């Protein structure tokens, strides 16, 4: 397919079209990894850091009482010593690596669904294999690369202007506002050139960064614009969704009395509703982001890939 077949508008339309057209499949794929996977990781982390978690709870509960806050702070330091910095570091490492792998599960599924028109079967989807690991590694490398390139583009001009105008000059502060958007746009540009690694790794297997760079040649600007605009659109939609949720859940919030604590029936109901709402919001956003690259991959490949059944 020629480069002229792609426009910023068509790329955006395909991404949002996939997320909306496959909405039920998107939720079906994402709910188990997001709820059970991340919930299990959080439970494991709390188990590993139980004394520290209790100390933090005591510290937050003591705010407003100087004497109690001081005692809680000392208890927190004692808990850190009891747990040990090695265990703390290990817990956060497990949370980071585990979270990245769990995130890759729906990424691979969405990449296959958008690139090859797969349809997940069954109420549960939790497949962690070589393709998910490859996508997780690709994703981590792209994030690091985008962050480094973006910060260089951001810090160099801001630093030069601050040095010339003086650190306390209002000019330096004013320059930072448009430079933040430049930073985000540059990071989108990095994702534009390497993001096709997601469907490549999900469909073909292996690391997809080098193949993604070649496949996106000539399309970088169009994909960058589409990614940037999709983030703006999704951010606005997310804000509207959370405001709407706050309004619609107000009766449930008002039904919870001051005596309702963690574990009470009303708190459990509210927690379940809020968790499901978050799954819908963040799964939809991830489907748009990954589906954008999946649809581009599908058009470039001409939809010649052989279909594969979800397990």
Mean pLDDT: 83
* SS field, number of helical segments: 12
Major sheet, described briefly? none
Shape: globular
- Rounded to the nearest angstrom, the radius of gyration is 23 Å
Q: Strand fraction band?
A: under 5%
H/E element sequence: HHHHHHHHHHHH
Would you report the number of β strands?
0
Question: Explain this structure to me?
Answer:
This protein has one domain (3-301). The longest helix is centred in the last third of the chain and has 37 residues, at 265-301. Helix 1 crosses helix 10 (220-248). The chain starts with 7 loop residues before the first helix and ends in a 10-residue tail after the last helix. By secondary structure, the chain is an all-alpha fold. The protein has helices at 8-21, 23-48, 50-61, 66-83, 85-116, 130-165, 170-194, 197-203, 209-215, 220-248, 250-255, 265-301.
In short:
It is built from twelve helices and no strands.
Give me the secondary-structure topology.
Blueprint: H1 8-21, H2 23-48, H3 50-61, H4 66-83, H5 85-116, H6 130-165, H7 170-194, H8 197-203, H9 209-215, H10 220-248, H11 250-255, H12 265-301
